[in-house]
Amino acid sequence: MKTVDRRHCLTASALRYGVYLMAPLLIVACGAGPAENRLQDYQARLTRTLQLQLPTAPEPQLARFPRPRDLAAAPVPATIDLMDLWSLRDCALHGLIATKNSSLGRVSLSSTQLFHELDFLRLLPACLQQLKINEKDELAQALEQVGKAKRERLPSFIWQALLGGPEYRDYWNLPQQVPDYHAAAGAPAQQAAQALTVLAQAWLNDDYRVDRAVVETHLKQMRFGGAGVLHKSLMLQHNYLSTIDTATQQRLAQRPICFSAGGDPAPILDNVVRKYFVGELQPWSVQLQKGVAQLRAAQQLEALLARGEPAAFQRWRFKRDEFIEVASGAPRRHVQALLPVLEQCGLAPGGAQARLPSANVEQE
Length: 364
Fold this sequence. Notes:
Elements: H1 6-17, H2 23-26, H3 34-50, H4 68-71, H5 82-87, H6 93-101, H7 103-106, H8 110-133, H9 137-162, H10 166-171, H11 187-204, H12 212-223, H13 227-254, H14 266-304, H15 311-327, H16 330-344
C-alpha cells in the first residue's frame, strides 16, 4: 500500500486557505471520501470566518456488527433416532430427516437450515395423520413433541437465516472510506426487507410455505443496500457539525461576531453558508435522511424477529438505533446554532441577504 506523507496534506490545506489554522482544523485525511472532504472544507471556511476555536474531543466510535461467533445459535440435538426414522419410511418426513441427519445437513447454511425446519413443519400434519392411521400412536406423540419444540425455536431459525448470515453483515459493513451516499442505492434493500418481513410473519403464523429462490434473491438485495455507508455518513455529519456548533456557542459567549448588521464578516459568512452548507452539504443531508427513512423496513424486520435474536445483536441494535436518532438531527441543530450569528450579522432567514434553510432540513 502506498503511504502518503501526512505533512504534505497539512501543508496543502494550510496553503489553500492562506493561513495556518489550529491543529484539529488542519488534520485533513488524504484518503477521505468526497462527503468528508466537503465537511472538512465547510468547517475550515466557517472556522476561519467566525474565528472559532474548535474543541478537541474524541470522535465517537461506531459499534460494529457483532462477530459471527457471538451470533451463532446453540446446536440443535438430534430428535429422531434411527429406529424411529425407519418407522417413518412411508412418510414424506423420512427423506427430509435423513438429509438433515447426514454430515452435509449438519453443516448446512443457516438459510438451508431454515428451509428444512419450514419443510418439516409443513409436512408434519400429514405424517402425523399417517402414523395414527397405522396405529403408531407412540411415535406420533413423540413426533408431535418434536414439532412443538421446532415451532418454539422457529423465531431463532428465521433470525439466523435472515439476519445472522453474511448478507445482513455486509449490509451493515462500515467502509474505511465513505463514498457519497445516494438513497436510491438503498431502495432495493428496503423492498427486500419489506418482502422478508411479510414472509417471516407468515412463517410465524404457521404458514410454512417457502420459495428458496425468492428468499435467496431478497437476501442478495439486502447485501448491497449500503446501510453501513449511511451509518458512517451520519457519524461524519454529526461529528463535524456538532464540533462547529460547540465552537460557535463558545465564541458568541465571549464577544460579538458582527458589531453591526452587514459589517465584517457578514458578506463572507453569507457566502460560506449559502454555497458550502446550503448548496453542497444540504442536498447530501437530504439523501441521508431519506436513507434513515428506508432503514425502518430493516428495523421492522429486526423487531419482528426480536424473540430469536442473540443478546449481542440486541445490544448492538439498541446502541445503533440510539446513535442514528441523535445523529439524524445534526443538520437541524446546526441551523439552530447558526441563527444567533446570522441575526447578529443581519443575515437571518427572510432578510435581504441570507437564505438559510429552515431548521427542519431533513425535508426537501
